[in-house]
Amino acid sequence: MNDKNILMQDALDIREDEIPWYRWRWFFALTFFFFSPATLVIGFTGNVYFKKVFGKNQGEVFKLPNLNKYMILVGTILLLVNNIRYFY
């Protein structure tokens, strides 16, 4: 069994300019706050990426762990269900 942290991932071997702008974590978070259906489409159709700003892997590109992505998607679904229930 591996003692590695489940949320810790290795850096990806792709350049930043190869990742579409809508697949970055900042856009994923922005759509969560301003247009939730886009969050669902982005999250369910592919990976979300982020660039490390602090730490030893600064400047490297990582994939957002699936656990984090799915937690955000479940929160988005609950938010949409609550809004639909409240307004209709």
Description:
Keywords: Membrane, Transmembrane, Transmembrane helix. The chain crosses the membrane at residues 26-50, 70-87. The chain is 48% helix and 7% strand. It has one domain (16-87). It contains three helices and two strands; from the N terminus they run ααββα. The chain has helices at residues 25-34, 36-45, 66-87, and strands at residues 49-51, 61-63. It is mainly alpha-helical and 88 residues long. It has a two-stranded antiparallel ribbon with strand order 1-2. The chain is elongated, with a radius of gyration of 15 Å.
Structure summary:
This protein has 88 residues and is mainly alpha-helical. Helices cover 48% and strands 7% of the residues. It has helices spanning 25-34, 36-45, 66-87; strands spanning 49-51, 61-63.
Shape: elongated
% residues in beta strands: 5-15%
The helix tally amounts to 3
- Indicate how many domains the architecture comprises: 1
What's the total count of β strands?
2
Which structural class matches the secondary elements? mainly alpha
pLDDT averaged over residues: 88
Low confidence ranges? none
The whole-angstrom Rg is 15 Å
**Order of strands in the sheet with most strands:** 1-2
Terminal-residue CA separation: 50 Å
The percent of residues in helical segments reads 40-55%
> Largest sheet at a glance?
2 strands, antiparallel
Order of helices and strands: HHEEH
Oligomer: single chain
Transmembrane segments: 26-50, 70-87
Keywords: Membrane, Transmembrane, Transmembrane helix
